[in-house]
């Protein structure tokens, strides 16, 4: 019997090719969206779960709030790990990563290659984290100074083989340190919150403040004996602050205990986060890689489910749309003795066949569009990551879910026809205004409108970010990385570049208002004695006298630095926020701020005030910032004006190669560096736009089906109206009116949902747009236009039909 069901189902589906094609395309598009988004979500949830001890590994975070200044960091001092292991039994082991040195230059033959994915790590690193060794023994790979572990890619890049244990690498570390390769590991999985190609011994970390409790430059991980010991560790972290934090705090403030320090809202404490939560639940200063957000997981999970449901709704609408044409078939089957169960089985068989065809087409579309999805999502999926033997159960479940759920209503609805009634009247007695079917259309367009509104607002926020006046020049600013490779030729190179007519100004400083630039926080006070109430956590940037004119920063009062004035070595230029936090009043020029270290004290006099500018992401407010005359040669910035950029870059590179032979000329533009801070938002915008279009397209197929159903049901009414003189325009308006009502209902439901959801998303940005009313009106108009266009194709066809064809059976 089942075999017969499928044989008849196949015959019916091939006979009605248009209906079959619309159903298969709608299902496959919905399944493609569901498969891709589900793959994306599961990948986001998989971060760092490949470590065998993942449930026991936690990262330490530091929180220091002084007055209105806040530092919430994924960094700690170098000593906290060893102390916790020695004093608290729940801590089995610890390891640290040091990345503050930035990229390294590695020699390959006569060339120096810039390696960004590098870090210094403790020898315990491989006892805590799980990576596959290709050569060497990981247990003691980083125990000795001047040792390094390479990934497969790095080994093949430098030696064209992975069997390189015992060979050496030369770096640009002090004295051009030579490192011995002690192990080679498989490339770190991309779904980890860090990914390095070279790990150097911690003993070689170029760090100057070993043992200082309040110098936070290390990422510290703790391995607990039991995952349930987290609450005990957090209790001991508070004990640690009281026991070890006070001596460190007294170096900067005149306090007698931690609670005194914590007066007036000040804070100094540590907490921990499971490594499996870092990627989605952490966005602190000093993250090793840009993280995502659980918010996006919720959003895209809902979108994937809604797209699948819209595809099922589309199937139901298209199935019921042709119910009138199947009415006689059902009536004949029942007259000949077929039970309702067998008729329902027949329709379920058709549904399963359609679902199978849709899944097969969807798999083909997924395989074809993986590169496109990678470009949209920023992922690196391969076909076998999505389609493999492990995914077969998922496809089987999708087949059953889509086939049975989407086919259930048509099977029940069509099998319930009264045989005498349908044989007598040819169609089921129905107005075609089923509340259920109308509800399905409202549901489809509600979801589509919410997605379209979300896409508009995300795009508008990104456009606002890109065009907001940040207070500094970011157009036509050329940044040169690894500037320190020039050695003692840094100033000579700048002077050489400034002789080019297309180069206007240039500054040497690693402190720039973009990501991957230097940052430094230090506590300063207006008084010579620091207290919890007078201390300001100040960003301390070392710049030269050309920094302010190169970035076109606005001096509100005072003057710029001058190398001709010796006193400027103890001068500071503050931003407006710093002036406010220090309470320097309307005339801060000439006043002093102080920095205490141990028993010493440094005092700086204010020579200028710059207008506030956004030097961090627009998610964050402007914080206190001070410029100090100094030397920070990791990067340089040049303001250029040229009509022939390739020629200018070629000239600069030629001068670079003369002064730094063998070192790669590595550059970027400030506007590109600025845009890189918002990669996750741009990915969300692209994905939202894609899936909003997909959901709307599938919804239109459903609307097309319902329009066909309505036209079929009202064919006699249309024929009579035409005979009585109704115009095509009048009939089209009559048929479209009902659908426009449904879309308006969807708009009324969707607007408050979209307004709430997007305002929650915008809360992450300190500087943001308002969810303007015109966005909702525009979206509503788009939805109405799409609905009218979709319905009118069927309405015009029905209105132009010969009324004789619909009335001949009367």
TrEMBL record:
Residues 20-238, 446-614 form the MacB-like periplasmic core domain. Residues 302-419, 690-803 form the ABC3 transporter permease C-terminal domain. It is found in: Cell membrane. The keyword Repeat does not apply. It holds the Pfam family FtsX. It is a multi-pass membrane protein. InterPro entries: ABC3_permease_C, MacB_PCD, Macrolide_Exporter_MacB. The chain crosses the membrane at residues 20-42, 296-316, 352-373, 394-416, 436-460, 687-712, 742-759, 771-791. Keywords: Cell membrane, Membrane, Transmembrane, Transmembrane helix. Its main location: membrane. This is ABC transporter permease. The lineage of its organism: Bacteria, Pseudomonadati, Bacteroidota, Sphingobacteriia, Sphingobacteriales.
């Amino acid at each position: 019997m089942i075999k017969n069901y499928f044989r008849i189902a196949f015959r019916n589906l091939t006979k009605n090719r248009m209906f079959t094609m619309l159903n298969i395309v709608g299902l496959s598009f919905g399944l493609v969206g569901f498969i891709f988004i589900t793959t994306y979500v599961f990948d986001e949830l998989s971060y760092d779960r490949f470590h065998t001890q993942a449930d026991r590994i936690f990262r330490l975070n530091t929180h220091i709030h002084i007055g209105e200044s806040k530092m919430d960091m994924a960094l700690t001092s170098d000593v906290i790990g060893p102390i916790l292991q020695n004093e608290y039994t729940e801590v089995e082991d610890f390891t640290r990563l040091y990345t503050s040195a930035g990229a390294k230059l590695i020699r390959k033959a006569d060339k120096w290659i810039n390696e960004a994915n590098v870090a210094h790590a403790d020898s315990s690193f491989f006892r805590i984290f799980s990576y596959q060794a290709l050569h060497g023994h990981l247990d003691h790979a980083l125990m000795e100074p001047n040792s390094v572990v390479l990934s497969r890619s790095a080994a093949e890049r430098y030696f064209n083989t992975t069997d390189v244990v015992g060979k050496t690498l030369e770096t640009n570390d002090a004295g051009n340190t030579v490192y011995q390769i002690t192990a080679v590991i498989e490339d770190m999985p991309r779904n980890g919150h860090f990914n390095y190609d070279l790990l150097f011994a911690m003993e070689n970390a170029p760090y100057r403040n070993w043992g200082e409790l309040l110098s936070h430059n290390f990422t510290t991980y703790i391995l607990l004996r039991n995952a349930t010991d987290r609450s005990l560790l957090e209790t001991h972290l508070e004990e640690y602050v009281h026991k070890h934090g006070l001596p460190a705090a007294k170096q900067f403030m005149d306090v007698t205990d931690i609670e005194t320090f914590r007066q007036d809202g000040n804070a100094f404490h540590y907490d921990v986060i499971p490594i499996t939560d870092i990627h989605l639940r952490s966005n602190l200063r000093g993250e090793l890689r840009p993280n995502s957000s659980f918010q996006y997981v919720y959003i895209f999970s809902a979108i994937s489910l809604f797209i699948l449901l819209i595809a099922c709704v589309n199937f139901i609408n298209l199935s019921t749309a042709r119910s009138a044409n199947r009415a006689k078939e059902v009536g004949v089957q029942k007259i000949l003795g077929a039970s309702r169960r067998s008729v329902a089985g027949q329709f379920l068989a058709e549904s399963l066949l359609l679902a199978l065809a849709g899944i097969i087409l969807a798999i083909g579309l997924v395989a074809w569009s993986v590169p496109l999805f990678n470009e949209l999502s920023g992922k690196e999926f391969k076909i076998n990551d999505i389609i493999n033997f492990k995914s077969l159960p998922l496809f089987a479940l999708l087949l059953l879910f889509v086939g049975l759920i989407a086919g259930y209503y048509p099977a029940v609805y069509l099998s319930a026809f009264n045989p005498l009634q349908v044989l007598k009247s040819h169609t089921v007695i129905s107005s075609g205004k089923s509340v259920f079917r109308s509800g399905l259309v409202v549901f489809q367009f509600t979801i589509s409108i919410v997605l379209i509104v979300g896409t508009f607002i995300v795009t508008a926020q990104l456009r606002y970010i890109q065009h907001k006046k940040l207070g500094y020049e970011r157009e036509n600013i050329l940044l040169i990385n690894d500037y320190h490779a020039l050695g003692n030729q840094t100033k000579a190179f700048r002077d050489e570049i400034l002789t080019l007519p297309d180069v206007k100004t240039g500054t040497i400083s690693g402190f720039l208002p973009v990501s991957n630039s230097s940052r430094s926080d230090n506590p300063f006070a207006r008084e010579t004695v620091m207290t919890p109430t007078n201390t300001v956590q100040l960003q301390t940037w070392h710049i030269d006298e050309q920094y302010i004119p190169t970035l076109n920063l606005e001096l509100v009062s005072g003057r710029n630095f001058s190398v001709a004035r010796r006193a400027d070595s103890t001068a500071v230029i503050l931003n407006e926020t710093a002036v406010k936090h220090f309470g320097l009043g309307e005339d801060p020029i000439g006043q002093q701020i102080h920095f205490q270290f141990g028993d010493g004290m440094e005092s700086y006099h204010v020579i200028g005030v710059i207008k506030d500018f956004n030097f961090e992401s627009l998610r964050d407010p402007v914080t206190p910032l001070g410029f100090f005359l100094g030397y920070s040669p990791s990067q340089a910035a040049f303001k250029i004006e040229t009509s022939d950029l390739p020629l200018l870059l070629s000239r600069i590179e030629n001068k670079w190669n003369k002064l730094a032979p063998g070192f790669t000329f590595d550059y970027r533009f400030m506007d590109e560096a600025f845009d890189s801070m918002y990669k996750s938002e741009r990915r969300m915008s692209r994905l939202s736009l894609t899936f909003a279009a997909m959901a709307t397209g599938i919804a239109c197929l459903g609307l097309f089906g319902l329009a066909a159903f309505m036209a079929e049901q009202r064919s006699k009414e249309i024929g009579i109206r035409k005979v009585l003189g109704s115009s095509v325009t009048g009939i089209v308006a009559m048929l479209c009116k009902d659908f426009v009502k449904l879309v308006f209902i969807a708009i009324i439901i969707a607007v408050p949902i979209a307004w709430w959801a997007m305002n929650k998303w915008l809360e992450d940005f300190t500087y943001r747009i308002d969810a303007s009313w015109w966005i909702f009106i525009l979206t509503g108009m788009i939805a109405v236009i799409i609905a009218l266009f979709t319905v009118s194709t069927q309405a015009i066809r029905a209105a132009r039909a010969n009324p004789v064809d619909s009335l001949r059976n009367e």
